[in-house]
Every structure is written in structure tokens, then in C-alpha cells.
Amino acid sequence: MRFKLMAGLFAAALMSGTAFAQTPSTLRIGLAEDPDVLDPTLGRTYVGRIVFSSICDKLFDIDDKLNIIPQLALSQEASADGKEVTIKLRPGVKFHDGEAMDAEAVKFSLERHMNFQGSFRKPELSAVDRVEIIDPLTVKLVLKNPFSPLIAQLTDRAGMMVSPKAAKEGGDKFGLKPVCAGPYKFVERVQQDRIVVEKFADYWDKANVFIDRIVYLPITDSTVRLANLKSGQLDLIERALATDIKDIKATRNIKLATALELGYQGLTMNIAKSDAGKAGLGLDPRVREALDLSIDRKALNDVVFNGEFVPGNQWVNPENPWYMKNFPVKGRDVAKAKKLMADAGVKTPLTIDFMVPNNPETRQVAEVIQSMAAEAGFDMKIRITEFATSLQQAEQGNYQAYLISWSGRTDPDGNIYSFAACKQPLNYSGFCEADVDALLSETRALSGMEKRKPVYEKAAAKLLDGRGGILYLYHRKVLIAHTDRLEGFTQRPDGLVRVVGLKYK
Asked: What is the reported pTM?
């Protein structure tokens, strides 16, 4: 009811001519959740990345073919031994506070990502030993070991540069008023209500920025988001429902942009994060394998998503060249699941605290899993939790199963290392095995798919089918719906909403 009420109040504000009144140069984007902290060092949510794409440029970006392209950097060159990477910077770039985006700022930003208390970028840059300034527009990253995913990491939050002056002044409160070098600068945020940014007059590519202001509005109810788009109260929405695709395509003034996501939708299992894990899915690997076998991924996709998404069982989708065909998606086998539970000596039904973010589509997925798992002896007690709160609960180990997605990265390291290596910040399961750590570290030191993929296959044998801490379930299509008045929008597989080049007819 809250979000329907909010939508109604928003409509009333539009009609009454308040500050939110539509103008030709205001873009209103409906988000499926409220982002967490707007600090690229500390942020971890997908919707946060969508907002960051307007305010925080990165050293590098990707194109629609997943090729790495320059953004704040102009070029990069690795040494013959792979232990040094020299990056040339774009001249004349300014932060929103007028400070220069130069080599000193890049050194500061990267060191902040690497060393700041609570940083989620630390594992992404763990191979970097130090950052050296060569000249005002050149930095050298000296690595502890060759690290093949490095430049791919710099196409996301690890590559976002922040104003040293603002970051020093803001400290751990920098996310309340972020200052970066993107096309838009931060104006205000009201938690659970709106985030407002406006065009930055001194942006390095300002000739391609046509919209004056962007308002991000968190509306968790997908039906309400779509209704607001249809009525003209929103201009773009992310994560439209797969079941609404037909309706969206039939609506005259709306366009749909799609791409198969780089990430995955999965079930994270508390194995050893806390005592709660040890009393549930951490009891025995056979229990986790039984849960895996109880789920029919194809049926899940058909029932909830009208067959529009892609069933999967790995940290990359089956269409990705990094997908390991030696580990195909298995069919459901309830009889084997029951036997595994019996062999593990588990008294059924085994009650599992099943934490699920508050989203209608996610809740439906949880209900289907609950029904399927019940046949194998699991009593999945669904606990609906606000999204940001669910992340905090996962960090604390206050759950036994957690239905959580990952938006994905261009290099597979970004989809697996921080989730499966010991004591990494996104390893909510508590899974930790030295041999898996060694394999995941080995892939980081190798170059080329032909060398790295066989090592990933060795790791997969130890991680898939419930052996690790995540059951991979399916891969979404990124579904972005927008008004047909908006021109220049294209969707890339990373799911971000890029705003440079967007204009109204």
C-alpha cells in the first residue's frame, strides 16, 4: 500500500506543479529497490550501480559487445611480465567540486578502494601492491602478481574515481553527498523516496549530455512501476516483469530494451557463516545437494517468467563463452534428494529460515522453491525482508538460505572470487576451502580463456551441485522499459542505465 500511495502522491505533485513537475529535460527512473550507500568504495547493490552510472565515471567502460573501452582513462599498457600496468588519463577532467581528476586523484581513489575500512572493492584490487604517479596524467599500477581481470575490474566501481578533497572531508559519510566525475552531480537523497542529480556543466563529454535532471524513485512493486510508466509519471523503469513483456510490447508509447544479464539469480546457503548455518544447510554437503536436486529450474522459469529467462547452474549464463559445458544443468530428482537426506541422517522436515527480499517477483520464485523443496523434506520458512536489511542480515549470518542475485561482471572472476574465496566480503555463506582458493587465485594469474577456463572447471567440480555456498538457478534478461519519447537508449548486458547520449524527441 505504501508504494501505491507514494505513486498517487507523486502524481498529485505532478499535477499541482511542484518541484517534481515534468519538464522536457527531466528523466524520472523507477528503481526496484532503494540503493545502499552512494559511495563506490562501500556500495554493493545493483540499483546503486545504476545511480553511479550517472554520477561516477570509471577509468574504463564496456561496449555492447563487452569490449573494454576508455572512459576517464585513454589507454592502458601491461609490462611483459604482467606485473605493471600503465594507465594514461584523459586531460581536462574535473570532479563536481571543481578539483582536477588527475594522477594524484586516481592514486587516492584506488588506495581508498584498497584500504578504506569496510571497502567492498578491496578483493577486486587485491593484486595491486601500490600505485605510482609517473606524471600528472599517467599512473602505474604495480601488482603483487599478474592479475588478468584487473582492467575488467576497473570498468565497474573499483574504477570509479572520487574527489580526494570531498572524500577526505566526508570520511565514512562521503556517501551522503558523493562527489565524482560523471555527467551528473548529486543534489539530494531522501531515503526510500528519491535521489536527484543534475547535469554537470564542466563534464568532459558535456556535448553528449542533453537531459538536465534525473530523479531516481525506488518503487518495489513492479506493477506500480509499470503503471507509472504507462501513465507518464515515470520515463524509464528497470526490471520490468517477464510476465509483462507482452503487455509492454503492445503498449503504443513504450519501448522495451533487453539483454541477457552477465550475472545470475541464486540461492546463497549459510554453511559456516554462523551457528544458524551449522544447524541447517551446513549440516552436511548431502543436504545442500538434496536441496539442489529438489529444484526444477526449467519449471521455475516457465511458471514465474513465462519461459523468458534462461535456466542455469553456474556463475555465468549458458550463452557466455566462459560457461563450462562439462557441467550441464541437471534435471530434478526428488527420489535421489530424499535418499541424500536419509543418508545424511537428517530428520525431516528440515526447517530452513529462508530470507527473501521484498519484491513480488522474488517472492513468487521463493514460493515455487518452497513448494518443490517440500517434496524432498525441506520446510522453507519464507521471511520477507527489506532489501538493504537483508544484506546486513546476510553479513551477520542471520539466515540459513538467502534468495539473492548478482548483476554480473565482464570477467568471470567478478562473479565468483568474492563469493567463494575464504573470508571475502561477499562470501555470505562462510564457505572456505584452501584448494578452491588456490584454483581461483590461479585463474587470476593466467591470461586467456584457453588457460583460465580449465582451472575454473576444476573449481566448479568443488563448488557446483551444492558443494559450495550458492545454488545457481537462472539468468534474467535485463528488461528496461521506457517512454518512446526517449531516444538514444541501448541496453548492455551489465544491466546499467547509461544516460550520456539520451535525449527527448
From this structure: 0.84
Neighbours of 447 (CB within 10 A): 12
Strands (DSSP E) contained in 361-430 are 378-385, 401-406
One domain, residues 254 and 330 = no
Same domain, 281 and 419: yes
> Radius of gyration (Cα) for the chain, nearest Å?
23
Mean pLDDT, rounded, for 249-264: 96
Residue 24: what pLDDT? 58
Establish if 348 belongs to a structural domain.
yes
Place of cell 546503486: 48
Are residues 392 and 489 both part of a single domain? Answer: no
Question: In 10 A of CB 251, how many CB atoms?
Answer: 16
Distance separating alpha carbons of residues 77 and 61, to the nearest angstrom: 16
**Whether 43 and 132 share a structural domain:** no
From the list 457, 460, 459, 453, the residue with the least C-alpha distance to 437 is 459
pLDDT digits (tens, 9 = 90+) for 411-450: 999 999 999 999 998 999 999 999 999 999 999 999 999 9
Indicate if 122 and 152 belong to the same structural domain. Answer: yes
Grid coordinates belonging to 314? 553456474
3-state DSSP assignment of residue 359: coil
The domain that contains 145 carries what CATH number? Answer: 3.90.76.10
Cβ(47)–Cβ(238) below 8 Å: yes
Residue 30 sits in which domain range? Answer: 2-56+182-261+478-504
Please give the average per-residue pLDDT across 109-114, as a whole number.
98
Percentages (nearest 5) of helix, strand, coil residues in the chain: 35, 25, 40
Q: Which three cell numbers stand for residue 346?
A: 537428517
Residue type, 68: I
* 177 located within any domain: no
Taking a C-beta distance cutoff of 8 angstroms, is the pair 42, 120 a contact? yes
DSSP per-residue string spanning 469-492: SEEEEEEPEEEEEEETTEES----
Q: Which of 114, 134, 166 is the last residue of a domain?
A: 166
| Nearest partner of 7 among 277, 203, 193, judged by Cα | 193
Q: Which residues contact 183 (CB under 8 A, 6 or more apart)?
A: 54, 55, 57, 199, 200, 203, 205, 206, 209, 499, 500
The percent of residues above 90 in pLDDT, for the chain, comes to 92
Question: Hey, what's the cell of 167?
Answer: 572524500
Say if residue 386 is in the same domain as residue 369. Answer: yes
CA–chain centroid gap for 6, Å, is 26
Residue 8 pLDDT exceeds 50: no
Mean pLDDT of the 304-325 span:
96
